[in-house]
Design a protein that fits this description.
Layout lengths: L1 H18 L9 E11 L2 E10 L9 E6 L2 E6 L5 E7 L7 E6 L8 E6 L6 E7 L3 E3 L4 E9 L9 E6 L2 E7 L5 E6 L5 E11 L2 E15 L1 E11 L2 E11 L7 E5 L4 E6 L4 E7 L7 E9 L5 E2 L1 E2 L3 E4 L1 H34 L5 E3 L7 E4 L9 E6 L9 E5 L1 H5 L12 E3 L5 E3 L6 E5 L6 E4 L6 E6 L2 H15 L9 H13 L4 H16 L6 H15 L7
Parallel strand pairs: 9-15, 15-22, 27-33
Antiparallel strand pairs: 1-2, 2-5, 3-4, 3-6, 6-7, 8-10, 10-13, 11-12, 11-14, 14-15, 16-17, 17-20, 18-19, 18-21, 21-23, 21-24, 25-26, 26-33, 27-30, 28-29, 28-31, 31-32
Length: 536
């Protein structure tokens, strides 16, 4: 009996188990933080999958169904998922999110509404109606969608007539703009096209006038053509101008003449007799039929009939002559006042023009001696030696022998004269000394010294002057051409040839002549200029 009970208990355990099964509790799931919007033209869905405690359900599959579309995504560590669908031309109005559940978690489903996409429907074009030539032009557009809101991220094309000149993309405010330069003068047709997915959805047009003013230079003068007085009006266009520019001369009553511009310049010759009034005025008008060009109108020009013109011309020239005469008299008097009478220069004949006496302006003035180069007028540093009459008569300027006390001028070439001196010997290196006879005590002296070579040139010219041969320019050719002429005039051939050789050597040689050589040369010159030395 006990064994039977054991077997009965053994078989009864499964029956008890089957009669009382274990109860399994499953959790719930839910969608949270759902969003749907458009990003860069695509439809974007996002959200989170949470359990009934609000904790994220990780790495589970979530399905999206919209119309005939189905997409799958998985949750991340935060239970987040997202979908990205191309919106197309006919986007869905809603979508279903489905979670089929998992072990111990029940599934869930949520319908999400898709926001309506607003398509651009029109575009507004803004620009100035008229600008001056060379001015920068700003052109702007505003794209608007079917909700009357700015439409962003759409391409806009800009056309000038039928030629595309620009493109841009609208910003977040639905705007974009261009800046144009150097548009030619005239009327321009502007067109903008608003594009949506490579399709033109809207356009706008406008007209822009680029204007410039014609400009010209007018010259008026009176002239006589075939014994008939005329008014000559010269019109020169300035800057740019169209080919159909017409120039007209108009009075208040009528047009005097009209013609088209030729190469930018035209001249009108109007007979004065054809003018209706004795006196009047006219204007020059430049006009073009091309849009954008503004007419040019000159200031009025006055005209007169021949008798008035002749009378006014005579009076004008008479007045000019009188003014010129008065100006000449004024200049002459001013020069006389500036020079005055303080300096009276008298040339001593025996010293030719190398020495000048200058009278002083006041009795207390100290007489001075001024030493200058005869060729350039530059001040010279010179040695001034006072000589008695007997010493002066025995002095040869080409070989001075006196060693008396001397004065030396400063860098300005001047020094005070010693009182009571009768003769002065003025010497400077490289120049021929000058023996001065002081005939006006108390007066200042101006002494000019010649260089050695200049002194030789003067000596040769003295010979030519004695023979009556003119000299225009001194040079080697002058010496060689003058030699046969001097021989024909009766001078001794040997002396003349020697003089010519010496002149060429001293004036054009490589070394500067010494004072002794210059003195010997002048002895030969004095012998030739003496009439008794001629062989006639």
């Amino acid at each position: 009996m006990p064994q039977f009970l054991s077997v009965l208990v053994l078989f009864a355990s499964p029956i008890v188990t089957l009669a009382n099964p274990a109860v399994v509790v499953r959790g719930t799931s839910q969608f949270a933080e759902l969003k749907s919007d458009y990003q860069d033209g695509a439809l974007h869905f996002s959200g989170r999958l949470l359990d009934d405690s609000g904790d994220p359900i990780i790495d589970k599959r979530v399905d999206l169904r919209a119309k005939r579309l189905m997409r799958t995504s998985r949750t991340n560590q935060n239970g987040h998922f997202e979908f990205l669908l191309q919106a197309g031309s006919d986007p869905p109005s809603s979508a279903n999110l489905i979670f089929h559940g998992a072990e111990f978690i029940s599934g869930c489903q949520k319908r999400i509404t898709v926001p309506k996409i607003h398509r651009p429907t029109r575009i507004q074009l803004s620009h100035p109606k008229e600008v001056n030539f060379g001015t920068e032009i700003k052109i702007g557009v505003l794209a608007i969608d079917d909700n009357e809101s700015p439409s962003a991220e759409h391409r806009v094309m800009l056309y000038l007539a039928d030629r595309q000149i620009g493109r841009c993309r609208t910003d977040a405010k639905g705007r974009c703009s261009w800046r144009l330069k150097s548009l030619p003068v005239g009327l321009h047709q502007l067109t903008v096209d608003l594009m949506d997915e490579n399709k033109r959805v809207a356009n706008a047009t406008g007209q822009l006038v680029v204007s410039a003013k014609l400009d010209a230079t007018i010259k008026l003068r009176e002239r006589v053509i075939r014994d008939t007085p005329h008014l000559s009006v010269s019109v020169q266009m300035r800057g740019s101008f169209p080919a159909d520019t017409a120039i007209s001369l108009r009075t208040d009553e009528r047009a005097i003449a009209q013609a088209s511009v030729q190469n930018g310049r035209i001249v009108f010759e109007i007979p004065v007799e054809s003018l209706l009034k004795d006196r009047g005025e006219f204007r020059v008008i430049a006009r073009s039929s091309h849009p954008g060009w503004v007419d040019f109108t000159s200031d009025p020009f006055h005209y007169k009939k021949p008798s008035s013109i002749a009378m006014d011309t005579t009076l004008r020239w008479s007045l000019i002559f009188c003014l010129a005469l008065m100006l000449a008299v004024y200049i002459r008097r001013r020069r006389a006042q500036q020079s005055g009478t303080p300096l009276i220069i008298e040339t001593i004949p025996t010293l030719e023009t190398n020495v000048e006496f200058v009278e002083q302006t006041g009795p207390a003035s100290t007489p001075l001696i001024y030493v200058r180069c005869a060729s350039t007028g530059k001040a010279l540093v010179a040695k001034i030696t006072a000589l008695t009459h007997s010493m002066a008569t025995r002095t040869d300027v080409f070989s001075p022998t006196f060693n008396s006390d001397s004065q030396v001028t400063g860098a300005d070439g001047q020094i005070a004269l010693q009182p009571g001196c009768e003769h002065l010997l003025v010497e400077s290196d490289g120049f021929v000394p000058e023996l001065v006879h002081v005939t006006k005590p108390g007066s200042s002296l101006r002494v000019r010294l010649w260089t050695h070579r200049a002194s030789v040139q003067i000596g040769f010219m003295d010979v030519l002057a004695a023979a009556g041969i003119p000299i225009i320019k001194f040079g080697v050719d002058t010496i060689r051409e003058a030699t046969p002429k001097l021989i024909k005039r009766g001078f001794d051939p040997g002396r003349i040839q020697h003089l010519a050789d010496e002149t060429e050597f001293l004036c054009f040689g490589s070394a500067s002549p010494t004072l002794t050589q210059v003195g010997s040369y002048h002895q030969v010159v004095r012998g030739l200029t003496d009439t008794e030395a001629r062989g006639i």
